[in-house]
Specification:
The protein has 223 residues and is α/β, with parallel strands linked by helices. It has a single domain, classed as 3-Layer(aba) Sandwich (Rossmann fold). Helices cover 38% and strands 17% of the residues. The protein has seven helices and six strands; from the N terminus they run ααβαβαβαβαββα. Strands 1, 2, 3, 4, 5 and 6 form a six-stranded parallel β-sheet that branches. Strand 3, helix 5 and strand 4 form a beta-alpha-beta unit. The radius of gyration is 17 Å and the shape is globular. The relative contact order is 0.19.
Amino acid sequence: MNRRRFITNTLAAGAVSISSTTAKAGDRKSVKILGISCSPRKGMTTATAVKAALDAAKKVDSSIKVELIDLGGHTIGTQPAGSGKTKDEFDRILPKLQDPSVGGWIIGSPVYFRSMSALCKAFLDRCAVLRKPRLLLADTAAGALAVGAYRNGGQELVIDQIHNILLCHEMMIVGGKPGAHQGATLWNAYKDDITKDEFGMDTARKLGIRVAEAALRLALRKS
């Protein structure tokens, strides 16, 4: 089956109903969704938004497992894999990224000058190791969210930047439901209490649901 037909059959609207994927949940292996918060501020707005997306994803089906990887407070170096340089946080989390049970990623970044954070770029650059000797992330569902200081502060630009990199891994990019078609966009207008941005939190939950649905459909096709 060629890639175009695979995408059409798995992700087209109505191709596989969620009821059909959940009917035999007890017979399937778990599907893990990783949420990766790429803000240097540990446990703050971006991490909270990613966690909300994961919480929503977990409710889609009992076979969905989730894990939050908060990169806040850690340093991701720019050295290439296998360079022999000092180990850093990326080396510690690499086994989690290579876990074959992972069926989806949700990546979150704050908006810095209408771009992703340097931490997010460094993390994604280091993920080049997942492309050799084969595309380990190919056909894995992926979505992105961004937190900005303004409602229209560059969130969609950051989401697009993240998507462009993930496409190089041949990941299956998805957005959220209506209101979050490109991804989740959040506005930090309440002194770091991102939960008060009701619209933004809703987009995060919608993104989590969509990534979980896509991950289940892809896992079903692979089984």
